[in-house]
UniProtKB/TrEMBL annotation:
It comes from the Eukaryota. Residues 1-90 form the Rieske domain. PROSITE patterns: RIESKE. PANTHER family: 3-PHENYLPROPIONATE_CINNAMIC ACID DIOXYGENASE FERREDOXIN SUBUNIT, FERREDOXIN-RELATED. This is Rieske domain-containing protein. SUPFAM superfamilies: ISP domain. It comes from Cyanoptyche gloeocystis. Keywords: 2Fe-2S, Iron, Iron-sulfur, Metal-binding. The lineage of its organism: Eukaryota, Glaucocystophyceae, Glaucocystophyceae incertae sedis, Cyanoptyche. One of its GO terms (molecular function) is 2 iron, 2 sulfur cluster binding. It holds the Pfam family Rieske.
Length: 106
């Protein structure tokens, strides 16, 4: 799990594994529009939703398109995350997202 902040200071938790070829996403970058970009093939995903943003596997030229054809555009797994009293909480149970949004536990 990779925990990051966007340019506005919002906290997000996403899988640290690129869905395309398994590259660790902590080697990528966060963009001003709230995406994380894989350092290997430069696909990007929304930090909020995990949806693919922009072109799938645009890099390297030519080869990116070939490796991109190995797997269709795939969303990035996201987890509920929030900051409470200076502490970051990440909900690893995907079914717990509703609890996070309603600010209840258990």
């Amino acid at each position: 799990v990779l925990v990051v902040r966007d340019f506005d200071g919002n906290v997000f938790a996403v899988s640290n594994v690129c869905p395309h070829l398994g590259t660790p996403l902590h080697t990528g970058k966060i963009t001003a529009d709230g995406a994380i970009v894989c350092s290997q093939h430069r696909s990007a995903w929304s930090l909020a939703t995990g949806e693919v943003k922009g072109e799938w596997c645009p890099f390297p030229p030519v080869l990116g398109k070939i490796t991109g054809a190995l797997q269709p555009p795939t969303p990035l797994l996201t987890y509920g995350a929030r900051e409470v009293a200076g502490q970051i909480e990440v909900y690893l149970n995907l079914d717990a997202k509703k609890d996070l949004e309603t600010k209840t536990y258990g």
